[in-house]
Design brief:
By secondary structure, the chain is α/β, with parallel strands linked by helices. About 35% of the residues lie in helices and about 20% in strands. The model is unreliable at about 530-535 and about 560-575 (pLDDT under 50).
Length: about 575
């Protein structure tokens, strides 16, 4: 680790940690002060004038004056801002619109202002400082941090739209950036397989002490590709450059040339390491100074952690990155091997409602940070420095402990109607739209039951359970699967990205035996569900749900995939 980088961390980190700790001692006070700052600063915006920000002096008054919002409620303001009509939600002009998927067909554009970016950077310094204090060796060598491109498109007014991770990667202080394994240009490679290969080609020639990726699914893909491309990577390290077979433009090759110099000595080391592991490169062998991993550990992504174990040293520390989304950075984990983090009370204003309630509460019934209870689960509403006001995250979190007097939370799952294994955030509305598009010519001749998300080996996929009056032929069924995949890609940019980056397998179609859905409905009514209120979630990540139905056959996009499914379901699925 460079002396300058150490100096930056030693000077800024402890100060930010001290400020963070002081806020945690007075959570409600900090929330009220932050809210007043946000409202006063933005009282002359279009949104601020409409809701009387200048006359609001407390969180309770804020709850009375401002309704709970979704992205659709704020979309007109964001669209106007992107079009050049500034001062819609914030006094500061956004410097980036972070792109993420929405519940409807269009992408969401989340404003990032200079102040909101600085606040997130401060939280990152707190996280880094605590991590470095526990494991100073994490910065002894290079750091491989995997991000997405900062600029995927530009708004009509010219503001970049893309990933905030890429934006942060490019804007960290130069001494810290000097620790990065890969130059930013690598993450602008459009072909995902080429991008993965280039990341690994560069990193294999280096010594790493830390690997960072929000989603552990990305780490798993990198491990698999490292083994798959062992021979080619060793050859490239020996000769220098990047294999011509890799789809990387000459412009990017030229920009990253300094990272691709020949290194015969390292190539010999890699060859010997591969020989000791059945001819394959393995992270724990080629990066012996690897001190820790940093990635999400909670929610549905936790399933990946077990799959990562063969590739890394036993008991390697893993530090969670926290409750983190395009909309906000919600928590700061301070401990290893835990998905819990301290609520970011100095950066965002939070409100909560019990996750087990049948209805969402009225605007004044939401709980404040000092009213939540240990062990309880809540829906979460956030007000940010970037211009989101009483924004319903559609997430469920759990309060698991307290740091000083501030709740420590963990992300549990998306709320009903949305599933996300690797960041795709697929919604029930998108699934229903895809099914209706694909089977529109068969109206009345099929019953769509549900799309079930589940782990498929090392990758997740979605099973579409459909019951037909008359089952179509094999060719039409396979075309239907392809059409379902295409529709979801068109509707959901994150789904398309995860499919393209091979972190998400293609969907499969499971053909359910005729009459099964009616039997299921009768069972549920018999078990106490009101007949008039019977409803099935059209999207779920409960893999056991599919076991309720007898499946005749399964169809996927893979070769020889059209096959009969002879297995019978449990007796409870047949006896009533």
């Amino acid at each position: 680790m460079s002396l300058i980088a150490k100096l930056v961390l030693s000077l800024t980190g402890p100060m930010k940690v001290e400020q963070f700790e002081e806020r945690c001692r007075h959570p409600r006070r900090e929330q009220e002060e932050l809210l007043r700052h946000i409202l006063q600063k933005n009282k002359n915006t279009v949104f601020g004038k409409k809701h009387g920000f200048g006359r609001i002096t407390s969180l309770r008054t804020f709850q009375k004056r401002v309704p709970v919002c979704t992205y659709e409620d704020l979309k007109s303001y964001i669209d106007a801002e992107r079009g050049g009509k500034h001062g819609q939600l914030t006094e500061e002009k956004p410097i980036l619109f972070a792109m993420t998927s929405g519940t409807t067909g269009d992408a969401k554009y989340i404003p990032v202002t200079p102040e909101s970016r600085e606040a997130k950077a401060d939280l990152m310094k707190v996280w880094l400082s605590a991590f470095y204090k526990d494991h100073p060796e994490i910065f002894s060598e290079r750091v491989l941090s995997v991000v997405s491109p900062e600029v995927e498109e530009r708004a009509p007014d010219g503001t970049p739209c893309g990933a905030e991770s890429g934006h942060a990667y490019r804007n960290v202080p130069a001494p810290i950036r000097s620790l990065y394994s890969c130059p930013y240009e690598v993450f602008e490679i459009e072909d995902y397989e080429a991008r993965y290969y280039t990341i690994l080609r560069i990193a294999a020639a280096q010594s790493l002490s830390l690997i960072v990726s929000c989603n552990p699914s990305t780490l798993l893909v990198l491990c698999e590709r490292l083994a798959q491309h062992t021979r080619s990577i060793i050859q490239d390290v020996r000769r220098g450059g990047l294999s011509k077979k890799v789809k990387v433009s000459d412009a990017i090759r030229n920009k990253i040339a300094d990272y691709l110099k020949p290194n015969p000595t390292r190539a010999d080391e890699l060859r010997q390491m591969a020989a000791q592991h059945k001819g394959q490169l393995v992270p724990k062998a080629i990066w012996p100074k690897l001190a820790a991993l940093a990635c999400w550990q909670g929610g549905s992504v936790g399933a990946y952690l077990e799959k990562l174990k063969p590739y890394f040293p036993e008991k390697i520390p893993i530090r969670d990155l926290g409750y983190l989304a395009s909309e906000h950075r919600g928590s700061v984990p301070l401990l290893d091997d835990s998905d819990a983090g301290v609520l970011a009370i100095g950066t965002n204003v939070y409100e909560f409602f019990p996750a087990d309630k049948d209805r969402k509460p009225r605007r004044t019934e939401l709980l404040t940070v000092n009213e939540v209870e240990l062990g309880k689960r809540y829906g979460i509403v956030v007000t940010t420095l970037g211009g989101l006001y009483r924004y319903d995250m559609n997430d469920i979190i759990e309060v698991v402990a307290y740091h000083k007097k501030t709740p420590m939370i963990r992300f549990v799952q998306k709320a009903k109607g949305m599933v996300s294994f690797t960041g795709e955030k697929l919604s029930e509305a998108q699934v229903v739209t895809a099914v209706e598009e694909v089977f529109q010519a068969m109206k009345g001749k099929y019953e769509f039951i549900s799309a079930v998300g589940e782990m498929n080996g090392n990758s997740p996929h979605y099973k579409f359970l459909v019951e037909f009056n008359k089952v179509p032929g094999p060719a039409q069924l396979k075309e239907s699967v392809k059409a379902l995949d295409d529709s979801l890609c068109q509707q959901n940019a994150e789904y398309a990205s995860k499919r393209k980056s091979v972190r998400l397998d293609p969907p499969v179609l499971q053909i359910v035996r005729r009459g099964e859905f009616d039997k299921y409905r009768k069972r549920k009514v018999s078990d106490g569900s009101p007949d008039g209120q019977f409803k099935v979630l059209r999207l779920t990540d409960d893999a056991d749900f599919a076991k309720e139905f007898a499946v005749m056959r399964e169809v996927s996009l893979k070769a020889n995939s059209h096959r009969t499914k002879p297995k019978r379901q449990p007796d409870r699925a047949q006896s009533k």
